[in-house]
Amino acid sequence: MTEANRSATLTLDGKSYSLPVMSPVLGPDVLDIRKLYAEADVFTFDPGFTSTAACESAITFIDGDAGELLHRGYPIEQLANQSNFLEMCFLLLYGELPNAAQLEDFVSRVTRHTMVHEQMHNFFRGFRRDAHPMATMVGVVGAMSAFYHDSLDINDEWQREVAAIRMIAKLPTIAAMAYKYSVGQPFVYPKNSLSYPGNFLHMCFAVPAEDFVVNPILEKAMDRIMMLHADHEQNASTSTVRLAGSSGANPFACIAAGIACLWGPAHGGANQACLEMLREIGTVDRIPEYIAKAKDKTSGFRLMGFGHRVYKNFDPRAKVMKESADEVLGLLGIANNPLLQVAKELERIALSDDYFISKKLYPNVDFYSGIILEAMGFPTSMFTPIFALSRTVGWISQWKEMIAEKNQKIGRPRQLYIGEPKRDYVDVRHR
Ligand code: ACO
Question: Which of the residues 49, 271, 400, 403 could staple to 383 if both were Cys, CB 3.0 to 4.6 A apart?
């Protein structure tokens, strides 16, 4: 636990309370209010947790003003350009980059866990074919706790480790199965000779009737998309995983909760919503109409893929994603893709508009990812499942970090009650 190095004083109704101030390695100082309620009989009010640090963490750091994202201290740009997704998984889970032998062992362990229990195939068949793949994933990942009884004991470090490897290994299989099920095609089993992203593309796009060769351009792009989504500090879905886990729930149930939270359009669902918006705009000449709508508070419309709770500068992931979109579409010979043209022009116009400048609204990671995923052949409904399978390593790393804490407590926020004061029950005949 971080030690306080000085204190702040809160004065309330003539009484003074000392609040320890803790200094993190990076980021703003943190007021320790844990004893405030006991000592001063007051709560703090912070809906949306805009000023609240809910935990200590050594995994990811974001400097929202500088537009900087570090995983275990390493800048995301360096990881995206020089590392690969599985190496990054090792880094997030264990804190350091692996040496060659550690990496080989880790890749082998993940690769040997990619198949799902055969009975899960039957479980899938209970869903309607037109179910959104995220709906299927929430159900199937939650159901993993009914299949893998030997990795449910959260107090056993080895079982936690096995659960982590299982989830990193099986989530792509489950996402691909959700996709195959939704298009009425047979499930494709994982292939251990392929890379992690290559295997995912194979499970999504291969059919038994013909050979499928993974395109190396798309394989690399997929790997990068996975890296850019791998973890992002205490965002809504990660906080959901931590809160669910704080009660002692099993890891599969916790990750299912994270997937459910990610689905919302204000979070991971924004990549689908963003591409649908770009399609709706359709041509560059219609952009001003949409910019005006986004600025009009009565329209209820927001530019999807724009704005972020933490970044008040460019989302560094969006920069890498934009480069990737250019590269991938160029290599595929579709650099003049109309959606990419609309996205770039929309970004240019928004970034020179006073409304967006004054509110510090910049493109986020979801702004360009959909364009690449669509070029790869994914329907929009698969965008958020791909985000979910990529974020699984972040969720599970954060969950493991929390469970390993000595003084871990159940998460239990308080409230500012605004309902009726105490009153007496009135019989129905007198109401
Ligand atoms: N388009 C237009 N206006 C916006 C947008 C947007 N995309 N985002 C924020 N604003 C405006 C708000 O209307 C508000 O204006 P006001 O101060 O005049 O009331 C101001 O900017 C601040 O917005 P908040 O909603 O208070 O900011 P918050 O930090 O709560 O929300 C969020 C962040 C949810 C990401 C928001 O920017 C948004 O809805 N963006 C669109 C959805 C999106 O792209 N989500 C993906 C986020 S990244 C991720 O999860 C991977």
Answer: 271
